[in-house]
Amino acid sequence: MTELEQSAAPGSEWWRSAVIYQIYPRSFADASGDGIGDLPGITGRLDSLQELGIDAIWLSPFMTSPQKDAGYDVTDYRDVDPLFGTLADFDAMLAAAHARGIRVIVDLVPNHSSDQHVWFQAALKAAPGSPERARYVFRDGKGENGELPPNNWESVFGGGMWERVTEADGTPGQWYLHIFDATQPDFDWTNEEVREEFRGVLRFWLDRGVDGFRVDVAHGMIKADGLPDYTPPADAGSMGGVDDVPYWGQDGVHDIYRDWHKVLAEYDGDRALCGEAWLPTLEQTALWVRPDEMHQTFNFPYMMTEWDAERIRSVIRESLEQFGDVGAPSTWVLSNHDVIRHASRLALTADSPQGDGIGPLSAGKPDQAIGLDRARAATTVMLALPGSSYLYQGEELGLPEAMEIPDEFRQDPTWFRTNGERYGRDGCRVPIPWEADAPAFGFNETGGSWLPQPDEWARFARDVEEADAGSTLNLYKQLLRLRRESALGTGSMVWEDLGADAVAFRRGDLHVVANLGSAPLELGEGVTFVAQSQAFEGTAVPTDTAAWYRKA
Ligand code: TEU
C-alpha cells in the first residue's frame, strides 16, 4: 500500500470540505429552563462553536412534533415546535450563525410524518381507497377477516411494521405501514401529491436561507412493488443485509433526489443535500451522491468500522475510491444521535448492535480511559482526511455514552417497543455540560434536564476543558485550526506503510499516523510533532494514539 495516492473529487463548493457540527436541539442549550434545549439556547452558544472552528451546523428536527421519536415525528413541516421556540427564533439563530460565517443545515424527515399530522388524521377518518389514505401506505390485512398484517416486515424499533386502524364505523380495519414507531406512518412516495408537498417544504426553508438539508431515512422512501415478505439475515443489523431489502435502497428513491437536486439548484449559494442512508456497502452508499442527486451522504460504513488498523485503512481507501468515482466528496463521521458515542463505542468488549445502546445491565461495558484514548486518536485521523467531516455535539468534550440512565427516564421508542430488551439511543442524547459548577452543568439556569446528566460529567464541562491545555476540547480546536490552515479538507493523500498496526498517510509534507497496536510505534529521527491525540515524549507513538508530524 506504499505510495498509493488518493484524491478527493475536485470542486470548490463549501460542502466538499466542510466540518459540520451536529446539534441535537433538545440537549444542546436550554434558554427557557424547561429542561429541554431550544433555538434561543443555540443562538446564545454560537460563539463557542465559532471558537471551536467548525464551518456549519446541522440541527436535528425542531419542527412541530408530539416528540414520540424526539422530533423525528413531524406534524407541521413549516413551523417550529413551541418546545424549541418560534419561527422568529429560528430566523434569529440562522442570522446569528451566518453572521459568524457558520452555515446551517436543517433535518428533513420525509419518509414518515407523525400520526398527529393533519394528513394522517384525515386518512384515519377517510375510507379505504380514498385519496386521503393514498398519501400513506394503507393495506388490507391478511387472514379471513384481515386480522393479520399485510406482510412480515419488522420495525427498526422492534415489533411489527404494521398497525391496524379502527374504521370510522368502529370496525377493525386496514393496516398502515411504519418502518419506525407506530406513531410514524410512512408516506407513499409514489403519490405525486406527497412529492409536491415536499417540494414546497424544501422551498419554505430554502427561502428562509438555510444552506441545506440532512435527509432522514433517505434510503427508505420507496418500497418494493407488491410489498413482498422479507426476513433479514440474523446478522444483518440495522444496515440491512447486502441482499435486496424491499424497504431499503429501492431504485425509485433516486428519482426523488434528482427532483430535489433541481429545486436546490434554483437557489444561489451551493445549497446541499446530505442523505442519511444506512447501507451496508460503500458501493451502494455512493449511489446517493451521483452528480445529479444528493451532494453528500453519511459514510456509515466508516463510522461502524471497529478499532482495527487494517479495516480502517481499507474503509478509508474504499471510501475515496467509491465516492471519487461519482465525483462526490467522501464524508467522515464517528458519532451521531443514533449510535453509542465513539469515546465508549471504540472500547466495547462485547457485540453491541447499532441502536441497542448500553445500559446498567449491559455486558461488555467499555473501559472509559481506553475509549477516550481511541476516540481522540480516531478523530485525529478523521480530521486529516480529505472530504467533509461531521462532529456530534459533546464529542469535542470527549463525552462518553451515559450508561447508567435509570429506566424511568428512558424515552427512545426502541426501549418501549422491545419491552426494555434494547436500551436504545438515550445514552448519547444526554444534555451536554458547559460549566462544571452551574445548575445542569450550564445547560440551563434551572437545573432541569430531560435526561439525567451523570455527576462525573463535571470534568468534561466546557469551562474545565477550556482551561486545560491537554483537554479533548483543545485537541479539537487545534486540529480544526490546522486543518483549515492547511486546507486538509480538499486535495490528495499518499498512503504510508508504517506496519500492520498503523494507519498512516501523508497530506503534502504533513504526516498522519495512528498506532492501533499494543507496542509503541517508533517514528525515528527528525520528526517534529504538530499535534498529538494525547501528549507523549520522544518519537515513539504510544498505543491508541495518533499524531500529525513533519519530517526533517
Ligand atoms: O434514523 C434512521 C435509521 O435508519 C437508523 O439510524 C435508526 O434510527 C436506528 O437504526 C435505530 O436504532 C433516522 C434518525 O436519525 C433517527 O433518530 C430516527 O429515529 C429515525 O430516522 C426515524 O425518523
CATH topology of the largest domain: TIM Barrel
What's the N-to-C terminus distance? 23 Å
Shape: globular
Please identify which CATH superfamily of the largest domain we are dealing with: Glycosidases
Helix vs. strand class:
alpha/beta
The total tally of domains equals 3
The stretches of 5 or more residues where confidence is low (pLDDT under 50) are none
Secondary structure tally: strands: 21
Helix content: 10-25%
Largest sheet: 8 strands, parallel
Q: Which ligands occur here?
A: 1-O-alpha-D-glucopyranosyl-D-fructose
- The CATH architecture designation of the largest domain is Alpha-Beta Barrel
- Gyration radius from CA atoms, angstroms: 23 Å
Helix count from the secondary structure assignment: 14
List the strand order in the largest sheet: 12-11-10-6-3-2-14-13
DSSP strand (E) fraction? 15-25%
Average predicted local confidence, pLDDT: 96
CATH class value of the largest domain: Alpha Beta
Describe this structure in words.
- The protein folds into three domains: 387 residues, TIM Barrel (Alpha-Beta Barrel), CATH 3.20.20; 60 residues, Oligo-1,6-glucosidase, domain 2, CATH 3.90.400; 56 residues, Immunoglobulin-like, CATH 2.60.40.
- The two termini are 23 Å apart.
- The relative contact order is 0.12.
- It is globular.
- The longest helix is centred in the middle third of the chain and has 17 residues.
- By secondary structure, the protein is an alpha/beta fold.
- The model has no long low-confidence stretch (mean pLDDT 96).
- The strands form five sheets. It has an eight-stranded parallel β-sheet.
- A hairpin with a 5-residue loop joins strand 8 and strand 9.
- It binds 1-O-alpha-D-glucopyranosyl-D-fructose (TEU).
